[in-house]
Amino acid sequence: MIDMGNISWVTLVVLGLASFRLTHLLVFDEVMQPLRGFFLDYREQDLAPSGLTFTAPTPRGRGIRNLLGRILRCHWCAGFWVSLLLLVLYTVWAGPFVHGIIALLAISAIQSLVEHWVQTRI
């Protein structure tokens, strides 16, 4: 059995749901587009010779701005760092505020998953 210290399986699931929701919020949700726009430039690229184009996010600037742009264009990368952030918050600064934020994100993740399930069944 894996020793997770003081983290129960329920807590692990809640942290996982919170990480999923915060990652999705940062990487995909429209409300965060202005934030992503500071770190990413969206340019149309041609798929020659097909003539088709697609919009690809390209990191802006140098240094930390470029690094955060690279992270924000990859949901796998962002998910790792968001998970690390939430785990540190939960283990180091555990308290009502942090627990409330994590619970809010987890509940929002469940709502998103249920809504997706409902929309794909209609």
Supply the number of helical segments: 5
Question: Overall pLDDT, averaged?
Answer: 92
Give the structural class.
alpha+beta
Q: Which runs of at least 5 residues are low in confidence (pLDDT < 50)?
A: none
Overall radius of gyration: 18 Å
Shape assignment? globular
Share in helix: 55-70%
Biggest sheet statistics: 2 strands, antiparallel
Question: In which order are the strands of the major sheet placed?
Answer: 1-2
The overall number of domains is 1
What gap, in angstroms, lies between the N and C termini? 41 Å
Please provide the ordered H/E string of secondary-structure elements: HHEEHHH
Number of DSSP E strands: 2
Beta-strand percentage range: 5-15%
Structure description:
The protein is an alpha+beta fold. It has one domain (9-116). 65% of the residues lie in helices and 13% in strands. The protein has helices at residues 9-27, 33-39, 64-72, 75-92, 96-121; strands spanning 40-47, 52-59. A hairpin with a 4-residue loop joins strand 1 and strand 2 (52-59). The longest helix is centred in the last third of the chain and has 26 residues, at 96-121. It is globular and about 55 Å long. The mean pLDDT is 92.
Helix-strand layout with pairing:
Blueprint: H1 9-27, H2 33-39, E1 40-47, E2 52-59, H3 64-72, H4 75-92, H5 96-121
What key phrases describe this protein's structure?
122 residues; alpha+beta; two-stranded antiparallel ribbon; 5 helices
